[in-house]
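Researcher: I need the complex structure. Ligand is zinc ion. Inputs:
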Amino acid sequence: MKKYQLVCSVCGKPFEDEAEPYVCPACGGLMEPRIDLSAQAEHYRQVIRDGCQTGVWDYRDLLPVEGVDEAVTLGEGNTPLLSADRLAKVIGVESIFLKNETVNPSGTYKDRFATLALSMEKAKKTPAVALGSAGNAAAAMAAYSAKAGMPCFVLLPPGAVAERGWQVRGYGANLIRMEHTIDDCISMAKQGEILFGWKSLTTNMLTNPLPSDGYKTIGYEIGKQLDFQVPDWVIVPVGGAALLNKIYKGFQDMLELGLINKIPRFVGAQAAGCAPLADAFQKGLSKPEIWPGVPQTVAFAIADVCVYDGVTALDVLKKTGGGAEAATDEEILEAMHLIASKEGVVAEPASACSVACARKLVQKGIIRTADRVLCVLSGNGMRDLKLMEQGQKEVPFVKHRDVEGVKAAVNAYLEARE
Ligand SMILES: [Zn+2]
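Model: Output:
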């Protein structure tokens, strides 16, 4: 008997065929593995209470993993939850928490997917893996492929940030630059399954529901880190929406197990230059439409024209009394500076989008001053330092042995601080 059953994340209908696309024929919701928690409730409660000591695999009993004898792991997960008091003051709320996923091995939350995916494919003796990605998923899959000793092929769309390509190549993956969009890269990676026998590892529930479950461990970690006193709001950057859906799933499991007594309101944070989920939420749709035209935003990591797991995401927003918000590039870059200068974390623009959207919701009076807010910082911004430098003042230059020059430079900084 299987450890889990695939069921619709929206209407609960069971899914008999384990085949793509993993979409519910009845309602269009995404399928997800469901483990019968009631069978060993006390054991599962203990697993979540014990929490993550060494990584995501500490939650193995709650993950849809079978037949893996040896995990491919780099110590992912167990990321800090920071109490961001200085940032809270600027934003105008009493407490704000940052779930700092930037410290994962390849720099993003995608490592929680990659560890499960590569472990499963290695156990199945899959000859190679591939994916179409603008950078973060590619970096994660390349890192874990390196650890697994498996070839990895990455199809990179135009406009991808060079530093991410360098990271992928650094891990020894085979990079192919493509002329067309990210969707074209994803579909070519899929076609390659027949041509080359590799496994396409697109990081969404639509095509890979099992490793996507790795993200729900973020929810478990937050629960434990807050002593199971859940925040009022959880704000998550949304591209394909698997991250939001799975953090919600983590909270849903904890509610079912009686570890928490409510589920926070979930908000999908998007960039105004590509905001199909926010648009669908405003219009009251149950399925996001394809974003028309080319995305225009610095937050390229969430600039997905198609919200692959969007039907489930809209359902989560509705069920939890949450919503969706979109921030402009200016607001995102300002948030990126604030997170770094107030809290010491360099987050990529897509991550900063969650903080930018929190700020907007406070300004609109939707988030109240006394609310406890949690923003997910999904990825590291060390590869986006060029953006951080934008709008900064010129660095003063002092000539050899010019003490007066140093005094003038120091004083200029001190005056600017006052
Ligand atoms: Zn359904």
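Model: Summary of the prediction. The pocket of zinc ion is lined by residues 8, 10-11, 13, 24, 26-27, 29 (CB under 6 Å).
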